[in-house]
């Protein structure tokens, strides 16, 4: 960040102090450790790295992790948008409470969430027993992974879409209606495009968070290699086997994936704001 | 298409926004809805469009009751104060929107839509912006695109909510003349909301003055300006001075000045208020006649070709504003602090019970 | 009135999950003993977790005075980093294992699937619960017990043994990362028909979690699980706690401690005390790791390392 | 519309009539921004079902299991010494992390919202990053950095400094994981508020500090509180990363989530849920405070509009 | 306290916002900075206040160099366009703020602050709002509180950025007269920014016209209006008509009409443009004299006492706007579409190379 050097005569004081503290803290807590970690990865030979991250079992875990995260984020995209819509647009009893509860997955420890979810969705659980009748098994299958990831990603989409929806001027919808458009057309052509940046952000955040989630998933997924084993669990497994290099290599892949994800969102947002002002 | 508003009422919670309004907008006319902030202009316009539902009363388009009709079925073109252009669509897509959302069987072909949109963009002189996005346009240009978009669906009625409210004084003045010319060309029944009396008077065929949800007066711009129905309208249409006046046998007396007030020919020795516009006050450097009022110049400001004076006189409670052409004022040779004599040459008298509210 | 202790000393015992209950009582016992013997108050801090991750933590700097882990391999890792000497395993009696256990099968009440021995676990109608040997030390004992049984049964035919173990793991629906998780899966979630577990865990779950709901099936042949203990020399040197740390481990071999181990369902290493608990610990044929696999190092390298036998099993299953 | 325009715009009057077909009885009036009632009910129903399955039932499980065996059992579970130690540790960590992150959030928001500098989008993206990094990787990063085999390990042990497997390690991973919360809350808020009020304060002769205390802080108060609340909740609930660096020393380096796992692994389910219920209760209190905050804000807004 | 701006430059990235401006604001005067949007008015004002740092150039207050002085030390009162009142403080606290944040040793006592604030609130006629919060006030009231707050620290210089920009036309007109009176009372050196020429002309002692970061003209309102330095200023100060004109020996010739243009007495047979304001055009129903221009009335609008006409004539490229009192127009008996004759009675001629930019 070359521009950080304070230019002459900033009128509002405190730039040096706040920027200094921001960079110091960010550096100490985040940049230096992550940098060191990436540097550590570069000490691996390319072959070690490549073998570690392309091991069949690891590839299978990518498929599960990325696939489930995508599905969970997509579920959250649809239902999160729906929940946000319902919370913003409609009135119904208990709305305040429901609105407040949306933050729960942020606040509840993930391990507790995992235990609670498996209690619910195991085939002996509160909900699982009824699903079992239809031959649907949730816990210990990919479905279980998706359930857990959906749970932890839920607030992201709701909380990014909600404020945008609240600010969305009724005039656009009214303009659309006055031009003869039906409700569905208005939704598709006016409301959704306006929500798109927020939806994308929420989607990407939910996805990135789901990709890295560990605590809640290990309880409800079967952890079967090749089938229900998520990538973060593999990282843990590698570390437990004193294989830090393997763990770091896979960790780097996850890190880069998450960074790319954020880069893409920020890029998209920059692009849309450029285009549409 | 004429619009008939028949005893329409609308309240929000315990606030009455539109209070038993009946009006008819005649086919092809451009009507201004004029009134102070909060007087219910927007609400009335939105009721006509079908964006709000009246509590009671009916709306008829060309005699046909449309009160229950959904906005998308009414065939009105609505131009919003802040344009409400679709940000993620180009200018072309914005204007084409109303056509492309039609059900397939009534939707014109691609080429037809293209032609029509481009012709509309030419009409508003903005065909060169077709591929831009709204944020790349100036306020005035956006306003015209909003108009083109509303016109694309060939509305029977065009409704404009403070169409120039968000624009600079200069652009505003240009656009309102442009609107007048456009209307003369296309002659669709139009209603526009404004709180700027100059705009209403300059642009419209007819002015409806509203206050507190009620219609105060309804007539041609000249009628409304020259014969305001009540002090509210009088005051709302421009700067005004109030003199204490005696009313006697069709005459108003301000000091020794007698002004005709024929509508009060049967009143004797009552007291009222005479309303006089600044340019209806003559200013003298000396007491040229017996019937002038002595005054003192408190402030002189020269605004281009005109000079505005503020004078203090015993006959009025507030400062009196007078306006005269610069050359006339210079001929008088007066400066700030001088004594001067003034004489209202025309006035409109109201009895105290029809006082001007603080609108 | 007690004599006031001259000093206080703290030591950290890094152990694995199922020993919590045992060491809680043992620490109190030892503290009493140490106060008498050395006139010093000792406070034993405990850390429990998966055996592998505990070993890793010590390697990474968790300053354990003693480690009491599930398998020799995890302790041996400390040796490779020179935290303990090469001869660590011979410093205490019985391969440094003051208590032992074995691997048994837990089934549901009445043994509805009629499981009698390891052979039954390959049947198609049997679901087996066992944790992941890659992450759980206990699970490696389970795996080795199966493998040893296979070798015995097929007269050392590695191919057929491989096929046998593969078939068992093919019946595993959930591979928990840790032993206690597997117990919960079997008990709480009621998943699976057979649960491979350490004997002490098996008895504990039968006693604590559902008396009468489970039965323990003792197989014909199993492995002698020897969870080793050792002083972490590098740490005690630095902290000056060698004396108390060594005494802590030596005291494990006393009668008192051996009885306590039995109380927590570990087999005492002292044969005379073990003999007192025959109804709790039935006799069965046992083999040791060294007998069948030469050493833990070897077992680990052949079976559990990346690309080892277990990885091949997983690949064949999928 | 006049024929003149119809001609100019090129549609016959026949299509004009078709533009707004009216068949059958007039439909009931509906607001332009509203859906028909049945759609509304269906949407609300779907959303609530979804939320019930994913939010309310897990919450119910935790609370039910915690109090299943009565208040007494619950109480003794949370007052047991190890539980108390875990609670104390968690509170200690939170007491360090939250103020630090608060300072960071305020400083970052101030620097970003009140000044122009190059690389601003990069800085904002960087602040976002910890959201996206797996807790497991976070743990790993610090083990690799501070572990005795790690890069700083030898140096640290030479000076007998303990970072991981001790409170500092726990503090640092939690600080890492919750880094963005307050900053993310404040940055958009302060950007939206601009800097006019601060400039006004400066023209009136106030110093930078006074401006911050008297003008900025009151303006960002509610956003700050909300951010702190969320950060606090996240900090208390962090599991994956802490599990890697805590060393799990009973009564010493077990935070509440780790203690819950311990209890669960000891088959003390009720106790595990009892401690969970504390965190859940905290989450609920959090939510309650947040609701109050929002309600206050809404009221202010309403008043402001009035 | 006089303010001297000495060769000040300021750029943002590659955009030059203030371009080598030198100006002096005299003690006690009220100066208007007038210019179109983006002309650098706000930037210049902020540089004076110390809210921006100039790239080069100096600022001197009463001869003393303050360029490097921090805003909090300059003793300027700054009134922001959107008031920037502290939302969470009452009106009283807002006005008292500047006094309460002083370091202890120079801070007045509680009672003293109270007195002073209440006096200021009385001055702006809002003492009854002391305990309200800003959001409980109307725009005009907030504006006056912002002013009182700025005055509380007894600034040597008062700077106002579009003080009435966010207000309704009516409130605006009232407040600007009020500001003028207030300034006459307190006589502090004041600079205010506006893009409304009427506001600038009516309120100020002096007008500085800016465009594209440069000062185009600097003089008294009458000077600037009557003798615009260039076409830009001419056009910016009001509606204007452009006629093609021949210039010859100190005369401008529009058709047969000859108008004096003494500044070109030494030019022969050149062509230029004659700028004429709408009220400087006389309109006739018949060709009363030989030197009238034939035209056609395209639009008539009656705005209160005045009638505005748009006429098409060959002598000008665009429509010609003319303005005359209503009674005079009625006397002519003209209606839309009629032919009419016009004659500019006064003009200002510029050579084509000093064309009006599209400001
Ligand atoms: N949706 C609503 N809910 C509650 N009150 C409303 C609503 N819409 C309008 N009002 C109130 O009704 C009154 C009339 O509003 P309306 O918008 O029609 O006024 P207006 O004449 O258009 O004023 P302005 O010139 O400020 O736009 C106002 O006092 C307003 O506060
Ligand atoms: N902080 C800034 N960064 C970049 N450009 C700026 C900044 N401030 C002003 N500008 C640019 O400088 C030019 C002059 O701005 P300024 O605000 O002084 O204009 P103004 O005359 O006050 O216009 P307006 O009437 O619209 O307020 C504008 O083009 C603006 O975009
Ligand atoms: Mg309105
Ligand atoms: Mg400006």
Question: Key features?
Answer:
heteropentamer; B: 359 residues; alpha+beta; Rossmann fold; OB fold (Dihydrolipoamide Acetyltransferase, E2P); 2 domains; six-stranded mixed sheet; 20 strands; 26% helix; 34% strand; disordered C terminus; D: 306 residues; mainly alpha; MetI-like fold; 15 helices; 77% helix; 0% strand; binds adenosine-5'-triphosphate; binds magnesium ion
Describe the structure.
The complex is a heteropentamer, with one copy of chain A (277 residues), two copies of chain B (359 residues), one copy of chain C (318 residues) and one copy of chain D (306 residues). Chain A is mostly helical. Chain A has one domain: MetI-like (MetI-like fold), CATH 1.10.3720. Chain A contains 13 helices and no strands. Chain A is globular, with a radius of gyration of 22 Å. With 318 residues, chain C is α/β, with parallel strands linked by helices. In chain C, the strands form two sheets. In chain C, strands 4, 5, 6, 7, 8, 10 and 11 form a seven-stranded mixed sheet that branches. In chain C, strands 2-1-3-9 form a four-stranded mixed sheet. In chain C, strand 1 (7-15), helix 1 and strand 2 form a beta-alpha-beta unit. The longest helix of chain C is centred in the first third of the chain and has 19 residues, at 20-38. Chain C is globular and about 60 Å long. The relative contact order of chain C is 0.17. Residues 1-5 of chain C have low confidence and may be disordered. Chain D is globular. The chains are: A mainly alpha (277), B alpha+beta (359), C alpha/beta (318), D mainly alpha (306). One magnesium ion binds at residues 41-42, 193 of chain B. Chains B, E: Residues 3-237 form the ABC transporter domain.
Count the strands of chain B?
A: 20
Any idea of the CATH topology of the largest domain in chain B? Rossmann fold
CATH level-3 fold name of chain D: MetI-like fold
Please identify the structural class of chain B as seen in this structure. alpha+beta
Largest interface: A-D, 95 and 101 residues
In DSSP terms (H or I, runs of 4 or more residues), the helix count of chain B works out at 10
Give the overall shape of chain B, derived from the CA principal axes.
Answer: elongated
Q: How many distinct domains of chain D?
A: 1
What is the CATH domain class of the largest domain in chain B? Alpha Beta
Radius of gyration of chain B: 25 Å
Output the CATH homologous superfamily of the largest domain in chain B: P-loop containing nucleotide triphosphate hydrolases
Total number of distinct structural domains of chain B? 2
Assess the beta-strand content of chain D as a share of residues.
under 5%
Form type of chain D? globular
Considering DSSP H and I runs of 4 or more, what fraction of the residues of chain D is helical?
Answer: over 70%
């Amino acid at each position: 960040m070359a521009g950080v050097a304070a230019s002459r005569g900033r009128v509002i004081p405190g730039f040096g102090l706040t920027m200094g503290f921001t960079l110091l803290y960010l550096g100490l807590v985040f940049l230096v450790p992550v940098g060191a970690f990436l540097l550590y990865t570069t000490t691996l030979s390319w072959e070690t790295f490549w073998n570690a991250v392309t091991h069949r079992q690891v590839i299978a875990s990518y498929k599960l992790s990325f696939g489930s995260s995508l599905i969970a984020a997509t579920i959250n995209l649809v239902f999160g948008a729906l929940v946000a819509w319902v919370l913003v647009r409609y009135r119904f009893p208990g709305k305040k409470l429901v609105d407040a509860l949306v933050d729960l997955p942020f606040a509840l420890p993930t391990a507790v969430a995992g235990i609670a979810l498996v209690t619910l969705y195991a085939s002996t659980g509160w909900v699982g027993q009824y699903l079992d009748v239809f031959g649907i098994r949730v816990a210990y299958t990919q479905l279980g992974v998706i359930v857990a990831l959906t749970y932890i990603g839920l607030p992201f989409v709701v909380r990014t879409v909600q404020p945008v929806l609240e600010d969305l001027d009724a005039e656009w919808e009214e303009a659309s209606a006055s031009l003869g458009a039906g409700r569905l057309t208005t939704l598709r052509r006016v409301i959704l495009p306006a929500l798109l940046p927020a939806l994308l952000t929420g989607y990407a955040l939910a996805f990135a968070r789901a990709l890295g989630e560990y605590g809640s998933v290990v309880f409800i997924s079967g952890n079967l290699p090749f089938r229900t084993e998520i990538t973060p669990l593999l990282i843990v497994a590698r570390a437990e086997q004193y294989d830090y290099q393997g763990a770091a290599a896979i960790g780097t892949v996850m890190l880069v994936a998450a960074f790319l994800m954020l880069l893409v969102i920020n890029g998209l947002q920059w692009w849309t704001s450029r285009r549409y002002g | 298409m004429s619009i008939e508003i028949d005893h329409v009422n609308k309240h929000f919670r315990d606030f009455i926004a539109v209070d038993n309004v009946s009006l008819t907008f005649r086919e092809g006319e451009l009507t201004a809805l004029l009134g102070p902030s909060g007087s219910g202009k927007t609400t009335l316009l939105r009721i006509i469009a079908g964006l709000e539902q009246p509590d009671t009363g009916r709306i008829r388009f060309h005699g046909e009751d449309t009160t229950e009709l959904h906005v998308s079925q009414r065939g009105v073109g609505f131009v919003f104060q802040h344009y409400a252009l679709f940000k993620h669509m180009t200018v072309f897509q914005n204007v084409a929107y109303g056509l492309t959302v039609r059900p397939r069987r009534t939707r014109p072909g691609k080429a037809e839509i293209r032609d029509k949109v481009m012709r509309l963009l030419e009409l508003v002189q903005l065909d060169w912006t077709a591929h831009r996005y709204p944020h790349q346009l100036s306020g005035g240009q956006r306003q015209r695109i909003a108009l083109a978009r509303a016109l694309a669906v060939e509305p029977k009625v065009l409704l404009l909510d403070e169409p120039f409210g968000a624009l600079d004084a200069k652009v505003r003045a240009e656009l309102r003349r442009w609107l007048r010319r456009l209307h003369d060309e296309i002659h669709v029944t139009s209603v526009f909301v404004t709180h700027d009396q100059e705009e209403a008077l300059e642009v419209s065929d007819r002015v409806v003055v509203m206050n507190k949800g009620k219609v105060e007066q309804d007539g041609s711009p000249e009628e409304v300006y020259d014969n305001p129905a009540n002090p509210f309208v009088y005051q709302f249409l421009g700067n005004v001075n109030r003199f204490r006046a005696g009313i006697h046998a069709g005459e108003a007396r301000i000091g020794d000045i007698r002004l005709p007030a024929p509508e009060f020919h049967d009143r004797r020795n009552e007291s009222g208020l005479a309303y006089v516009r600044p340019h209806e006050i003559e200013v003298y450097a000396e007491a040229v006649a017996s019937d002038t009022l002595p005054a003192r110049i408190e402030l002189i400001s020269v605004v281009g070709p005109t000079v505005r004076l503020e004078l203090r006189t015993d006959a009025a409670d507030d400062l009196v504003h007078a306006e005269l052409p610069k050359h006339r004022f210079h001929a008088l040779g007066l400066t700030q602090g001088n004594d001067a004599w003034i004489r209202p040459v025309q006035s409109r008298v109201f009895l105290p019970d029809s006082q001007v509210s603080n609108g | 009135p007690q004599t006031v202790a001259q000093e206080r000393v703290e030591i950290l015992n890094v152990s694995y999950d199922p020993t919590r209950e045992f060491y809680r009582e043992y620490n109190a016992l030892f503290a009493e003993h140490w106060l008498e013997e050395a006139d010093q108050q000792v406070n034993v801090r405990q850390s429990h977790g998966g055996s592998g991750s505990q070993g890793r933590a010590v390697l990474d700097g968790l300053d354990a005075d003693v480690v009491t882990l599930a398998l020799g391999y995890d302790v041996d890792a400390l040796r490779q980093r020179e935290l303990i000497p090469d001869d660590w395993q011979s410093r205490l009696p019985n391969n440094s294992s003051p208590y032992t256990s074995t691997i048994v099968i837990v089934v549901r009440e009445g043994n509805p699937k009629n499981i009698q021995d390891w052979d039954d676990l390959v049947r198609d109608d049997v679901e087996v619960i066992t944790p992941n040997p890659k992450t759980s030390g206990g699970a490696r004992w389970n795996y080795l017990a199966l493998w040893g049984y296979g070798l015995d049964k097929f007269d050392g035919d590695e191919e057929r043994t491989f096929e046998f173990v593969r078939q068992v793991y093919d019946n595993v629906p959930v591979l928990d990362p840790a032993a206690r998780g597997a117990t919960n899966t079997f008990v709480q979630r009621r998943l699976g028909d057979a649960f491979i577990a350490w004997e002490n865990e098996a008895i504990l779950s039968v006693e604590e979690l559902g008396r009468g709901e489970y039965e323990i099936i003792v197989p014909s042949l199993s492995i002698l699980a020897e969870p080793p203990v050792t002083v972490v020399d590098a740490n005690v040197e630095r902290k000056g706690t060698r004396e108390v740390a060594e005494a802590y481990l030596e005291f494990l071999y006393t009668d008192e401690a051996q009885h306590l181990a039995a109380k927590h369902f570990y087999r005492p290493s002292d044969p005379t005390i073990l003999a007192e608990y025959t109804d709790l610990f039935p006799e069965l044929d046992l083999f040791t790791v060294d007998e069948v696999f030469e050493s833990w190092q070897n077992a680990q390298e052949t079976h559990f390392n990346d690309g080892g036998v277990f990885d091949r099993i997983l690949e064949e299953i999928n | 519309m006049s024929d003149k325009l119809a001609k100019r715009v090129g549609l016959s009057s026949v299509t004009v009539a078709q533009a707004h077909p009216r068949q059958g009885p007039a439909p009931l009036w509906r607001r332009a921004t509203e859906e028909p009632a049945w759609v509304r009910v269906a949407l609300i129903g779907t959303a609530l079902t979804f939320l019930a399955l994913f939010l309310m039932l897990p919450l119910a499980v935790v609370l039910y299991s915690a109090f299943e065996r009565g208040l007494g059992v619950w109480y003794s579970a949370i007052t047991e010494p190890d539980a108390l130690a875990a609670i104390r540790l968690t509170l200690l960590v939170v007491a360090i992390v939250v103020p630090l992150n608060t300072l960071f959030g305020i400083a970052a928001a101030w620097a970003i919202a009140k000044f122009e500098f190059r690389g601003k989008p990069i800085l904002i993206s960087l602040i976002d990053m910890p959201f996206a990094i797996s807790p497991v990787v976070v743990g790993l990063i610090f083990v690799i950095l501070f572990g005795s085999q790690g890069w700083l390990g030898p140096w640290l042990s030479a000076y007998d400094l303990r970072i991981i497997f001790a409170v500092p390690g726990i503090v640092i991973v939690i600080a890492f994981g919750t880094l963005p919360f307050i900053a993310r809350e404040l940055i958009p808020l302060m950007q939206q508020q601009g800097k006019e009020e601060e400039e006004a304060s400066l023209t009136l002769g106030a110093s930078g500090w006074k401006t911050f205390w008297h003008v900025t802080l009151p303006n960002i108060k509610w956003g700050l509180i909300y951010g702190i609340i969320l950060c606090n909740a996240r900090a208390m609930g962090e599991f994956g990363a802490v599990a890697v660096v805590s060393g799990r020393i009973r009564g010493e380096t077990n935070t509440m989530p780790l203690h819950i796992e311990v209890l669960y692994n000891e088959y003390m389910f009720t106790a595990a849920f009892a401690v969970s219920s504390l965190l859940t209760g905290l989450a609920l209190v959090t939510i309650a405070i947040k609701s109050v905050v929002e309600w206050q804000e809404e009221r202010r807004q309403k008043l402001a509009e009035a």
